[in-house]
Amino acid sequence: MLAFMSYQTADREIAAGVAQLLDTLGVQSFMAHEHIEVSVEWRGEILRQLSLADLFVPILSQRYYASIWCKQESGIAAFRRMTLIPLSIDGSIPEGFISHVQSSLLQGGQATYHQLMRGVASANIGFAIDAGIRLIAGARSFRQAEYHFEAVRSHLNGATDQQIIQLLTVSAQNGQVCHASLCAREYLPPLMQSHGHLLPPDVREGLVQVLAQYANPPPIPR
């Protein structure tokens, strides 16, 4: 999957940070200042990249709308009906042909997986879920596991059986996931209920034992 980063020159570092986060999801990003060689006719290359990209990621600000080139890029993206992920630095909202899409505010100039995942899932739900599973598999702390799970959880209604099985398997293999409080108490039990029977017996039994430790205790008889 390819993303076209649209930004005003002064905001290139913020755009680069967003591109790095997209890269961890498996999305390659085009940034004009970094990827257009000096000898290349830049207008033609920008048009070519816009024709290839799946996602259009404008870094909105007052400076963005002061740039005729940024506004033209957003117009082309709207004409192509690209999946839009508008991110705002200063509270600026999408205007013109992209005004129908809600933007997300970048806190401290940094994007989150939650902000990006919605757009990626809109373009390709299977791709987004696979990316989320990889993040969960690599979680290195309880909080990181919960954070990554939260980012993908709302999209799991579009997951295949095999993806749910893979999610449960990587959760069982990573103690930071299966022992994270929210994962063990809220996120994993419904998936075990719907797909646990499809897991290999050893994986299923191991996960059942772990989740049992976090199950709500039965009410005390009166």
How many separate domains make up the residues? 2
Task: Give the overall shape.
Answer: elongated
In the CATH hierarchy, the architecture of the largest domain is: 3-Layer(aba) Sandwich
What sequence of helices (H) and strands (E) makes up the elements? Answer: EHEHHEHHEEEHHHHHHH
Sheet having the most strands: 6 strands, parallel
What low-confidence regions span 5 or more consecutive residues with pLDDT below 50? none
- Helix residue percentage: 55-70%
Number of strands: 6
CATH fold assignment of the largest domain = Rossmann fold
Characterization of the model:
The structure is a single chain. This protein has helices at 12-24, 32-35, 42-52, 62-65, 68-79, 113-123, 125-137, 142-153, 161-173, 175-178, 181-195, 201-212; strands spanning 2-6, 28-30, 55-60, 83-84, 87-88, 104-105. It is α/β, with parallel strands linked by helices and 222 residues long. The protein folds into two domains: 2-123, Rossmann fold, CATH 3.40.50; 125-212. Strands 1, 2, 3, 4, 5 and 6 form a six-stranded parallel sheet that branches. The radius of gyration is 21 Å and the shape is elongated. It starts with a strand and ends in a 10-residue tail after the last helix.
State the main characteristics.
222 residues, Rossmann fold, 12 helices, six-stranded parallel sheet, alpha/beta, 6 strands
Please outline what is shown here.
The chain has 222 residues and is an alpha/beta fold. The chain is built from 12 helices and 6 strands. Strands 1, 2, 3, 4, 5 and 6 form a 6-stranded parallel sheet that branches.
